[in-house]
Amino acid sequence: MALIACLALSLLAPQDQDWPQYRGPQRSGAVANADWSPTGRPEPLWTAQVGKGYSCPSIADGLLVTMGFDESAGLDRILCLDAISGELRWDFEFPATDEPSYHGGGTLTTPTIRDGLVYCLNRNGKFHALELASGELVWEQDYGAELGLEKTFHGFSASPLLEGDSIYLQLGGMVICLDAESGEIIWQTEDRGDLSYSNLLLLDAAGQPALGAVLAMNFVLLSRENGTVIQEYPWRLKGNAVHCAQPLAIGEDRIFLSTAYNKGCAMLQVGSDGAMTSLWASRVMRNKVTACVQYEDHLYGFDESMLRCIDLDGNAKWRVRGMGLGSLSLAGDRLLILNSDGELIVAEANSEEFREISRQKVLDDGVYWTMPVLVDGLIYVRNSLGDLACLDHRLEARAGTSSKAVGESAPAAGTLFAKHAELVGAESFDRDGQALRLRGRWSIPLRGLEDGAMTWTMLGPDQWDLRLDAGGLLYTFDGERAWAIEPQGPRRINAEELVEAQHLFPLPELFAPSCPEDAVTAPRMVRFAETECWKVSATLAGTDGTEERLHYFAVADGRLVGSEGTGLSTLVFHDWQPMAGLVLPARVTRYRAEDGQEHQIQITDTEWIEAPTELFELPPSIQRLMRSPAELAQASEALRIRFAGALARFQAKDKSTPLRDDIIEMSVRDGELWFALPGEDYRVAVEEEVDGVYPIVGLPLSFSIETDEEDQASVLKLQMPGPGGALLLHRLPN
After folding, report:
1. DSSP H/E element including 499
2. Are 667 and 650 in contact (CB under 8 A)?
3. Contact by Cβ (8 Å): 580, 437
4. DSSP of 670-730, one letter per residue?
5. What value does the mean pLDDT take over residues 421-441?
6. Parallel, antiparallel or unpaired: strands 526-528 and 545-554
7. Is 293 left (phi over 0), alpha (psi -120 to 50) or beta?
8. Phi, psi of 148 (to 5 degrees)
9. pTM of the predicted protein model
10. In the CATH scheme, what architecture does the domain 9-397 have?
């Protein structure tokens, strides 16, 4: 089998450096262009407003075409600009509606340019073929209406794929083939539903021209001739997860799949008959929006909100936290990275370590999911609000500066720690009988917790209680033990997690950052969080041996700017301000080491209060987790007797309920009553029983029973909360 799209860069040798379609000349996210400078002019060559959305620029014959939504006018626009001057050559507009659906809204697809024509699909299925030189309409179709398709939740997002005389479109869970000259539908597949937002892969399989598509719960190989299925490989998701990143062809007979929402990735081997087997699968790379790029034998991409490098056998090489959810492309042997702060980072495509060459703030506001495009030394970037900028990175525009050396010797590590403690008022933190209470906002975007209120009570640097309204989260550390109350249930944080738990909530680091005697200060200034810093490397004793910990102290005032370490979170402190006799950061950003999750913490109010020691008493739910085997057995037996008639499997046969044909199971495990749906378990909060009604932890449902004359459960009910809540299940045990 020969894969003919998205090939490794080592196989790329494009003669012209245009970027005429989604992911570039070979749809690989790469150009083999070495004639540009990694550092560019400080100001853009030009800027333009092109409308809301994520449409990537497509560039050919000196013209740039992109798309955007004009919210005020209710119009979708296709715009053509001069690629060098930014002058508007033409625009084509048509009425459209927009439903943001979490991502902010706007156009999701990228135009395709070929042979003097521009082909464009909008999120509702409207398709236009225009002349590149003039913008004149050649033909148009509304495939959403013609095929009777409902717009997917986020809208149609796959860009037109042209090959030969055909155009291939993925419209959510359906793939169609069009005649490029007229737009007439040649064939179409069945509609598999609303989970698919990735682009098509062009390849040869089983000796015939094929397409690779992620459709609902499978990766499917389709015949390009008639759309029939050649082979399928299961690629299942849970919850509200969707597929977004394009599959990649690796070499001659492998395909790389990657999906976010904690799904992970897999490398498939394609046989001569088209059959696909998994060479390996893991969670080492979870592409959410932008697919990886390949350089030599390695893949580089956004693993959720981390930048990561892996080899083709699935081994992790390095990762960089703090990038957020961004995008990237490949130019020669360099990565072009647009991070979540609107910074353009140029780095080496180096599998041994992340080597940053330059960094420049290029955009403000919105999100940055559209990949940077390099053509003839000019880099084009845009945000979701429609701000498009052309950055001059031509060789004659070289304007970078190297990291400056520091003439004076670096201060001793101990001096930096002591200076920081003095500036923040660490000595005044300990007040007998008093606790520091902070209020503010806390958000965890990847978990859907957006800007919820927090209350944070600290008796000392190593004794704190944190409560987050968003999601009903509670975390407590009493100096020796740590525990959490989360929607999925209570959890004791064990010894192995305790080091990370102490850094889970970063203010203790302000008062007592660790400084062993062998800590070493970097002899040169470094940049951390956009600040000139002294870097201190310290080796700390942890639960699993020693760990390297890095601290960054601002050169200007000596305050701790942030810290990071192997297996720990990266912390960044922003905007210091006096509060309650201390100096605290108004804002804290935390990047979780294990999954790149980003936390944003805003402190708005601080006061000293009488120490509320009751906060640090073990709650009953945590005490249950600490019971002895004998106590667990006794509790389990009591529950079995109490719920004897309910401990069974029930089938929801009422088609009008959300459960439909689901099997529900009630069981006792480890002294607790559990309620199970397919693939998910939920604890029943027996201790919170009110008049025979029990809440289910993690679900907005209640469980109740009716008993017979022998006090045995005879009727089981499952319903939504509140008076008159919908009855989801009403079953007798028999």
Report:
1. helix 495-504
2. no
3. no
4. TTEEEEEETTEEEEE-GGG-BTTEEEBTTSS-EEEEEE-TTS-EEEEEEE-SSTT--EEEE
5. 87
6. unpaired
7. beta
8. 65, 35
9. 0.58
10. 7 Propeller (2.130)
- pLDDT for the residue 362: 94
Q: Which own/partner contact pairs does 670-678 have at CB distance under 8 Å and 24+ positions apart?
A: 670/632, 670/636, 671/624, 671/627, 671/631, 671/632, 671/633, 671/634, 671/635, 671/636, 671/639, 672/624, 672/635, 672/639, 673/639, 673/643, 675/703
Between CA 93 and CA 486 the distance in angstroms is 49
Residue 642: both structure tokens together: 């109490």
Phi, psi dihedral angles at 46 (to 5 degrees)? -160, 160
Question: Among 29, 19, 105, which Cα is nearest to 65's?
Answer: 19
162, 180 contact by CB (below 8 A): yes
Angle at 275 between CA 271 and CA 278, to 5 degrees: 85
Whether the per-residue pLDDT at 629 is higher than 60: the answer is yes
The CB-side HSE value for 242 (13 A sphere, CA atoms) comes to 20
Tell how far CA 625 is from the center of its chain: 32
Question: Amino acid identity, residue 365?
Answer: D
CB contact at 8 A, 46 and 379: no
CA proximity to 309, closest of 261, 353, 347: 353
Q: Where are the beta strands (DSSP E) in 580-695?
A: 582-591, 598-610, 649-651, 663-669, 672-677, 680-684, 693-695
Cα–Cα distance list, 196 to 192, 203, 216, 264, 307 (Å):
9, 19, 6, 16, 24
Q: How many helices (H) and strands (E) does the chain have?
A: 6, 55
Tell me whether residue 228 is exposed, middle or buried, using C-beta atoms within 10 angstroms of its C-beta: 0 to 12, 13 to 18, 19 or more.
Answer: exposed
Residues 6+ apart with CB under 8 A from 69: 51, 52, 53, 75, 76, 77, 96, 98, 105, 106, 107
Q: Compute CA 339 distance to the chain's CA centroid, rounded to the nearest angstrom.
A: 12
Which tokens belong to 616?
A: 């640090």
Q: Identify the weakest region by mean pLDDT among 361-370, 472-481, 483-492, 718-727.
A: 718-727
pLDDT at residue 5, rounded to an integer: 34
Tokens representing residue 108 in the block:
């999701």
In this structure, are residues 626 and 616 in contact, taking their beta carbons and an 8 Å threshold?
Answer: no
Structure token pair of residue 515 = 């400084």
As a whole number, the mean pLDDT across the chain is: 84
pLDDT of residue 325: 87
Q: Tell me the domain boundaries of the chain.
A: 9-397, 413-616, 627-731
CATH of 413-616, one of 1.10.1060, 3.30.1360, 2.60.40, 2.50.20: 2.50.20
The stretches of 122-235 forming alpha helices (DSSP H) are 143-146
**Which class in CATH covers the domain with range 627-731?**
mainly beta
Q: What pLDDT was estimated at residue 503?
A: 56
The Cα–Cα gap between 301 and 28 comes to: 12
Burial class (CB in 10 A: 0-12, 13-18, 19+), 700: exposed
One-letter amino acid identity for 137?
L
- Helix, strand, or coil here: 44? coil
pLDDT (0 to 100) of residue 257: 95
What's the longest Cα–Cα distance across the chain?
91
Question: Sign of dihedral through CA atoms 186, 192, 195, 198?
Answer: negative
Yes or no: say if 413 and 538 are a contact pair by the CB < 8 Å rule: yes
Quote the tokens at residue 189: 């597949």
Strand 327-331 and strand 30-31: the pairing is parallel
